[in-house]
Write a structure and sequence with these properties.
The chain is 46% helix and 4% strand. By secondary structure, it is mostly helical. A 3-stranded antiparallel beta sheet has the order 1-2-3. The protein has a two-stranded antiparallel sheet with strand order 4-5. The chain is globular and about 60 Å long.
Length: 327
């Protein structure tokens, strides 16, 4: 059978995918990720149109990722989700179960955790908005993208709380705000407000609304309330609509900064922004916090995910002191 061109007046595959993703309020990041996985899937199968393929081809591609590319379990699951979305939501096909699928086993390694001294060594080498951002990663247990996606309205100074929205806008949680960050954060938001005023004066200033709230608060999209707490240094043009937004800061900048500063501090561990979140959880448990409280702050659906930090809390084997330390 001859392959079908990826885009013809009849198919228009990728515009249809984008349209469906936006209709279901998927985040821009998820949209970009799904598009890339679908393109890789099509390329892997010699650019055949997805309508010609099905469960067998999806399984073959996922096995390729597992056995040849050696991807992680989360990466394989992301690719699978993108392809199942394509068939169910765009092509509107119910696929039979995938046979002979090789599933990547989840990594059972313990998370890398910093000591309080190591956290301080990193923070002491920062200043300005980057210091504030990294302090929030550790002080509130945020993932880097959760921190970058924070809006002004999601910080409650009176209750010392931060509302963390799920990437798709449906599963939200509340975490704590460190008292020591209140005044620095208020000062930072004054700078954000000034930047927003400049954008408004130039005829811009509208924000891309959080998924799930776009229709409800569409008329307030230019309010300071919905601006990012850590805005980008430049304006961006939405390729689909042509609208001009000020997006949030780039996560790669944060990743590079944390890695570089950990090295400068002489920390010989694989440190990423997420290491600060792991450290937040571990230090709370070390301080006597209940595991279910930590679970809620981290947003884990299952407490078993949080329990892994209890293994990090214990020193030595099962928390038993070495006899060498007591002679």
């Amino acid at each position: 059978m001859d392959s079908i061109p990826l885009q013809t007046p009849q198919t228009k595959l990728f515009p249809s995918i984008v349209e469906r993703l936006e209709a279901l309020k998927y985040s821009k990041r998820t949209e970009e990720s799904y598009i890339q996985w679908i393109k890789r899937f099509i390329t892997f199968h010699d650019k055949r149109h997805p309508r010609e393929m099905g469960s067998a081809e999806i399984a073959a591609y996922l096995n390729h990722l597992a056995l040849e590319k050696k991807v992680s379990a989360s990466t394989q699951n992301q690719a699978k989700s993108a392809l199942l979305f394509l068939y169910k939501e765009v092509l509107q096909r119910e696929l039979p179960p995938m046979e002979n699928l090789t599933r990547v086993k989840a990594d059972k390694r313990l998370p890398v955790v910093l000591s309080k001294h190591e956290v301080q060594a990193i923070l002491s080498r920062l200043d300005g908005s980057m210091w504030l951002l990294v302090s929030l990663l550790y002080g509130s247990g945020l993932r880097v993208m959760e921190c970058l996606r924070l809006r002004v309205a999601e910080i409650d100074f009176d209750r010392l709380e931060i509302l963390v929205r799920d990437s798709n806008g449906y599963k939200n949680r509340v975490t704590l705000l460190a008292t020591s960050l209140v005044e620095p954060l208020k000062a930072h938001l004054q700078q954000v407000a000034s930047l927003h005023d400049e954008d408004l004066a130039k005829g811009f200033g509208e924000a891309r609304m959080p998924p799930g709230l776009a229709n409800k608060y569409a008329d307030d999209s230019a309010a300071l309330t919905w601006q990012y707490v850590f805005p980008s240094g430049k304006l961006s043009v939405d390729q689909q609509t042509g609208a001009v937004y000020r997006h949030h800061a780039d996560e790669k900048t944060v990743q590079r900064a944390v890695k570089k500063l950990a090295k400068q501090a002489g920390i010989h561990k694989q440190v990423t922004p997420n290491t600060l979140r792991h450290s937040f959880a571990t230090h709370l448990l070390q301080g006597g916090q209940d595991v279910h409280t930590v679970q809620a702050l981290l947003g884990h659906a299952d407490v078993s995910t949080t329990l892994i930090y209890t293994q990090v809390v214990n020193t030595g084997s099962r928390g038993v002191a070495s006899p060498l330390d007591v002679i």
